[in-house]
Amino acid sequence: MSSPRQGSGGVSPDPRPALASVEELQARIREVDPLVRAVCTPNPAAASDAARLDTERDDGRTRGPLHGVPVLVKDNIDTADLATTAGSLALADQPPPPDDAVLVRRLREAGCVILGKTNLSEWANFRGYGSSSGWSAYGGLTRNPYALNRSAGGSSSGSGAAVAAGLADFAIGTETNGSIVCPAALNGIVGLKPTVGLVPQQGIIPISHSQDTAGPMTRTVAQSAALLTVLTGGGTDYLEACRGTDLSDVRIGVLRGSLWGYSTGLDQATEKALETFSRCGATLVDHLSLRALGDDDQLQVPLHELKVGLAKYLATRKEGAPRNLAELIAFNQAHPDEELPWFGQELFERAEETGGLDSPIYVAARMSALRTGRDGIDTLLRDNQLDALVSPAYSPAWTIDLVNGDHVLGSSSSHAALAGYPLLSVPSGTVAGLPVGIVLGGTAGSDSTLIRLAHAFETARIESDGPFPTPEFRQWV
């Protein structure tokens, strides 16, 4: 099996025609994707779109640094020419959405080629308890390219696995709580969850309007920065943050406590990452912690927002599609063998029972989320005069278990999720051949700072340890 094409670390225009890049990746998808099942809907127009962009370039019309670059898009993001299903058979046979999502329109305007749609954990992993990340009734089971019997993470599993497998250097994921940074860490790529609101959410199937955001999933930090520039409309050039490795003016807080101790190998890789930041000149403020979260804090807000947001989204789809959460629940009940073979829809059912956004339960939960998330993060940053926080990202990829569901040992995304604050996961090393990463977080609008820190770390790590290992598409212990 051929090796995936490696990104250069930057975003210099590919000297080859866009059509050549698309055809190479399409061949790669045909060769590799039967193993990982990351791409659920290829774009049949990708080659013709690339040829048209090549003609523009030949005529001296280049739209920007991503002109002709192939991009994969998660299958909960509207594309007017391709199905958008959230992994559910309830939407699989429906016509494509009437319009592109705002971010897809921006990708096209920047000259990107939509290569296809990526599989996801069905309904972005917010349908039932005991789910297995990467599984959907529409797209099947996405597997980790580094270990085919281990999870690719969720819910942007297809986007993460596709970049790791060399099916594209650029992909789009979405996150409510960990759905970009988790598959990024498990697949050994870069995943950037922007500040909520920085990337428009119009045309994205929602869970929680206060927590949802789309973001880049790429091979390098610079590629994520370039992609974020496009997704946000181009007002800020985030590539400007990728400037060397000198962090002597930076203070980084090290989050300890429950984020450590569940994987000895991950802890060791993270300690080595901290040494790398120190070599770059950063001042580390160690042994910090955030207040523990209750399960109710994390569930009540998205449960209430899902019912309202999903009905609003489904109203944009053509007649024949389900119109609300109750109709989706009924569809799943009518198709249990296809939709409910491994786990149920308890979260859907709980959301359907909620009383709307005026409910005292929702208002109290939202206020609690803000106190725990925003106030907790901002107070820690302010009291310690910090620019960012760092912690281990996620445990190494767990063995896939469709019967019992995911076996996640620990995560680092929940406080930022409740706050709507940015996170950036970047590879830090391997544990028994499985990728692990660190996650950088900060306050609202600190996306450029996180990019700067991640780029410096990535550059210094590669100088010390060499390029990150490529996947071998084999079973693992």
UniProtKB/TrEMBL annotation:
<feature type="domain" description="Amidase">
    <location>
        <begin position="21"/>
        <end position="450"/>
    </location>
</feature>
<dbReference type="InterPro" id="IPR036928">
    <property type="entry name" value="AS_sf"/>
</dbReference>
<dbReference type="InterPro" id="IPR023631">
    <property type="entry name" value="Amidase_dom"/>
</dbReference>
<feature type="region of interest" description="Disordered">
    <location>
        <begin position="43"/>
        <end position="69"/>
    </location>
</feature>
<dbReference type="GO" id="GO:0004040">
    <property type="term" value="F:amidase activity"/>
</dbReference>
<dbReference type="Pfam" id="PF01425">
    <property type="entry name" value="Amidase"/>
</dbReference>
<keyword id="KW-0378">Hydrolase</keyword>
<protein>
    <submittedName>
        <fullName>Amidase</fullName>
        <ecNumber>3.5.1.4</ecNumber>
    </submittedName>
</protein>
<feature type="region of interest" description="Disordered">
    <location>
        <begin position="1"/>
        <end position="24"/>
    </location>
</feature>
<feature type="compositionally biased region" description="Basic and acidic residues">
    <location>
        <begin position="51"/>
        <end position="62"/>
    </location>
</feature>
